[in-house]
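Just scan this pair:

***
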Amino acid sequence: MDVNFLVEDHETGHGKSLVHSMQVHYIHELVQSRLLHVDHPLHDLYKVLHSFCQSLQLEVLHSQAQRLMNDRLRDSICIVEYSLSKSLSISYWRDQQKKRQNMEHFPIYKLSVHVSEEDEGKPLQISHTPPMTPIESRKVGLAIKSDHLSIEKLLMQTIEVRTHSKLKELAREMQRVIDGKCEVRDMPVALHVSVLNPCMSSEVLRISIDVQTGSYMASVPSCERSAVQGIEDSLNGEHRGMEKLLMKLKVQLVLQRCEKCVQLMMANSRPTLPLINTADHPLSKL
């Protein structure tokens, strides 16, 4: 009998084999000795090798997660729990947790890779907190593919699905107070809110989600940053006063339209009345 382990990760161990030759020899001797002393030798052989490979896969994913924390993603992710040969749990969108730590009902986003509790013969399973819908789970994947182990790819797929879900939920919320269209589109994906109706492309409120932090980011091409700062703060808070903030933005966009129309005429527009001596002016008594 010959044993070969196909689990690999070129970044772990600088491209060297993940299983030492002495380990391979030990496992080979172990399964060889058990073949003659169990009732179902092939079943036992599969169980031993499968259990070892799953443990090795979890170790590879754990090593990759540690590299991500030390390299690109830093504090954006955190290894919540690593149970040897059983499970690996990673939390993401950590900045949102720090900002909302005083809120009672703020969800903690976690991704877990674990051995199946129902059938240990299955591949490593993937679960999410908060739970995803069956359709969303299938988009990410229900199990780890042994031919390509990548915790970064798994995280990015999870965040992409979460982003779509959050923006669609926000679109339904916005549609209750906006007469125009609320569409989730583009790549990277964003929510496009037509504040005015009809609405030019430069007047569309664009809301996206930061991949690393999970924070909402708002912008309007024709407006300065300060015009949407209140909306962004509200989105990253408890969404209070959103209707008033959108109305304020709508008024500002209409004023901009008026200013542009006046520019084509023989007239001048000002943000305030050009009164020099306002103390004695009749308008001061209004």
Notes: DSSP finds seven helices and eight strands in the chain.
